[in-house]
User: Fold this.
Amino acid sequence: MPNYVDFVPQQRFQPTLVLSPNGRLVAYSSHVSGHYDLWVVPVAGGEPRRVAGFDDRTVRQIAWTPCGERLVFTADENGDEQFRLYLVASDGGGLTEVGSGPDCQRVLATSPFDPTGRLLAYTANDRDPAAQDLIVHDLQTGELRRFTPPDGVAFEAVSLSPDGRWLLATGFRSNTDIAIYLTDLSAPDATPVCLTSALGEGVFEPGVWAPDASGFHLLTDHWSEFTAAAFYDLAARSLQAIARPNWDVEVLDAAVGVRIWSVNEGGSSRLHADRDGSPIPLPDIPPGVISALSLAPDASFAIILINSAARPAEIAVVDLARHEFRYLTDTRPPALHVIDPVAPELITYPARDGRDVHALLYRPDGPGPHPVLLFIHGGPESQERPIYARSGLYQHLLHQGIAILAPNFAGSTGYGTAHQKLIYCDWGGIDLDDLDHGVQYLHTLDWTDPTRLAVMGSSYGGFAALSCLARLPYPWAAGVSMCGPSNLLTLAQASPPTWKTFVATVLGDPDTRAEQLLQRSPVTYADNITAPLFVLQGAHDPRVPQAESDQIVARLRERGVQVRYDIYPDEGHGFTNRANELNAYEAISAFLHTHLIATTADRPEALQVG
Assistant:
């Protein structure tokens, strides 16, 4: 049987791809060297070239200067999310830090430069840890032009217009309340103005500008529960729909009259394009999920980052001129050359109040009965989608005979705003009920063995996994929590200051909802947990501090419950170091094998099910 490492992709990517101004090079962040570094690869094909990187920092956001001779990027240290800005020549020379100073969250705009390349736009909380200011940095003089946000709003710079006059930004209150702000940089006393205030609360996420700066594209749920593609006309102050499917438009780019966008149809990405409003035929692409997209300046091709259950994330070219699809990278691990990976089945199961929960169900080869891992995605405002998940962990578990149920419970994205908002201030409520119904659904399948049931999740998913172990009355065989909150009250109290409004809206205000937060916390029910538990935690995690894992581990060890606790001193919220990631998933795979297969294979009840 192949080992876990045989399923590990050759490299992984951060979700950012940026084409050079001449369309010949793609810049991206990959951890093929062991850390996420800045790389470039020719669109025509050829060997990738490492441009910049650090032993202890992760390259996150990337942009080219207008002349194409340099790149700007952000990087944080050991996952602490205290991003710093750097400039580097495209050949790797002249690496310099921009705006050096105290640690803070410097977030680069998607299109951060004016046409001259002199002005650089980003966001930072250097003035006040609780406020994300818009900053326009003059790279020649070092002068900073700063714009402060209204109370309760977190700014994020998006782009400078092609004529350099306008600064486009978002004002974030929650994942379902994102406004658009516009600043006229030609005015000495400029103030950010909310363009979408008259349109009401909703999601308004601006994207690429029209070449003449007459307006910009955006994604919005203004017309329905689903995210549409639109264009905002500055002169008319009007919003015009481009595409309004009954699914979410997820990424969009435009150039010289051509627009290309991806739609999340039941979890899988579907590409669409038009030229001056008329549809353009596109080549077939493999089924999967597109997480990044960049259209060439002449619109002859697009670069995408595509991930599927059968093949790990790859950079690929969608050639509109030749009507061809081709990969630029090949990250396939050895195991995929000798076995057929398992694709999930999209299923639904009944839940409370007449709702149906969408889920991905992975069935291993063989008749069974198979033990099952209930995998809970993070967020919670996220979505389980058909990708090569967890660096091959899913496929390795499936090859061992372990089935996987991965539901999109209440609070998940992709199924409309109302479904997404069900979890607001109700963590450990309706979501846990949906997970309970998922386990009930497993009991109806003749090829599963619900007496050999484990649960796993990361971040919010870790919280939900702990909640399942503590609050759902099933004979859990094992549980895995990766940076999972155990105490919602202390989590809310320790959240980053810029998240105050978001936390109050989505999780609950710790000053007014303390009793409810404790009542929904896994640590409150820790005495109910008897299954072996594996806890993984980054010591530098700014989102879920180590104290969250410390609390549940201490409570369980006091009672003699079997707990393995791995703390990664050089990680934050998740893994940025490849060696750490591989070590963690290999250990998780062995842990689940031990408790779902090795120690349960001879149990009479396991043999009788199904």
Notes: The two ends are 25 Å apart (CA to CA). The CA atoms of residues 451 and 603 lie 10 Å apart.
